[in-house]
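Troubleshooting: if your tokenizer reports a length mismatch, compare your output against this known-good record of 260 residues.
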Amino acid sequence: MDIPSIDDDYITLNRPVSLFAGLFPSLVFYTRALTQVVQGGLQARAGRYSHAKWARNSYNVFRAMESVGAEIQVENLTAFRTQETPCVIVANHMSSLETFLLPYLLLPHHRISFVLKKSLTEYPLFNHVARFMRPIVVSRTNPREDFRAVMDQGQALLAENISIIVFPQTTRTTCLDPAAFNSIGIKLARKARVPVLPLALRTDAWGNGKLLKDFGRIDPRRPVRFSFGTPLMISGNGRAEHEAVIKFIQSKLTSWGVRD
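Known-good structure output:
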């Protein structure tokens, strides 16, 4: 793909920040990020979108976040890059930022799709990109229907060699409540007989908005973190693997200074 490759272990170094970006990080970031959404949406609507263009849009949002002074760190990307089969990535969920940045990290290596809440697929222009992504759309209001959608569509996508990214928390939050972290990703991986790849992330540099939750303040003082764990094959009922994923994410959040 025609984008600079990212190292398996990466951290932002020596990225210049303009005076204007330093003073108005939210304005600069959203201007650049929404430009990517518009470009991608118009291309997708016209039937001219591709995985390479999706990755390029994601890369530009990645650089937009760095351009306002945020430090981005990626750990152990090799755990995904070296996968010989599709997998189910199970991650905590903090903001919209992970949905925008993960394609840049992952698409150069394997095809991906997301489990997304329905409201994200209804934004103007982004809805065309969402359809291209072939997401598994869930309502967050009917657990039984959501479970069926993830299991049925997830298995179909995995059979096409497309890895699935699952955020088991029902809402975005900086903390991790094990009781609210459901095991649907584990169940999907077990049914499809593919590995689970734990992913801990910190993306609260993109805050929640007061009027529109998806558009909050950008705070580049908060570092952005992605850390991939060791792939796990599910044995038995998957309870041990579910607990291992939670333990991995909790340990990373603690080491990054994220508190309940």
